């Protein structure tokens, strides 16, 4: 089975499964803070092609700047946002990006377009991340957000390059299984 078919079928099945929860998540977000339910941001995709990523909005509307990192305890994060981030449910709308072929279920997380050039100047191998479709989850995600914050971009890049050099169907299944374990263990911000 090709990676694209696996991604499409997996994303479709997951979207059908979560369809019951989406209206409740949307109402919770709308009831607790003004602004859109879905956060949109342009990210660099496969071969650097820009695309719009979808996430449930987890911050107070208008409080995020493009280069701000969200750290544990950040006052800009809403009450539903804390739960959505902790459970990684804020990422679920990206299943639409997977269906559209802009993302894969597994791969390096997509980076904001404006950061690609900046990181590539500091770390020339950074652009290798664009050789594969960005993923909904990856090796960095199974280590947790705290791990990623501590090790920075170079640590995350080492994991991304390891994935790119060793990606295969079984490795993707392993990462998906570990992602589920990470979510159940509630590791995150």
Task: Give an overview of the whole structure.
With 189 residues, the chain is mainly α. The chain has one domain (3-184). Helices cover 50% and strands 12% of the residues. The protein is built from 8 helices and 5 strands. The strands form 2 sheets. A 3-stranded antiparallel sheet has the order 2-1-4. A two-stranded parallel sheet has the order 3-5. A hairpin with a 5-residue loop joins strand 1 (38-44) and strand 2. The termini are far apart. The mean pLDDT is 88.
Euclidean distance between termini CA atoms: 35 Å
Q: Can you tell me the number of structural domains? A: 1
Kindly provide the radius of gyration, computed on alpha-carbon positions and rounded to a whole number of angstroms: 16 Å
What is the global morphology?
globular
Main-sheet strand order equals 2-1-4
The largest pleated sheet is described as: 3 strands, antiparallel
What is the number of helical segments per DSSP (H or I, 4+ residues)?
8
| Fraction of helical residues | 40-55%
Mean pLDDT: 88
Secondary-structure-based class equals mainly alpha
**How would you spell out the order of helices and strands?**
HHEEHHEEHEHHH
Which parts are unreliable, with pLDDT below 50 for 5 consecutive residues or more?
none
Can you summarize this structure?
By secondary structure, the protein is mostly helical.
Question: How do the strands and helices of this protein lay out in sequence?
Answer:
Blueprint: H1 3-18, H2 22-32, E1 38-44, E2 50-56, H3 79-87, H4 94-99, E3 104-106, E4 111-112, H5 113-122, E5 135-137, H6 139-143, H7 145-166, H8 169-184
Parallel strand pairs: 3-5
Antiparallel strand pairs: 1-2, 1-4
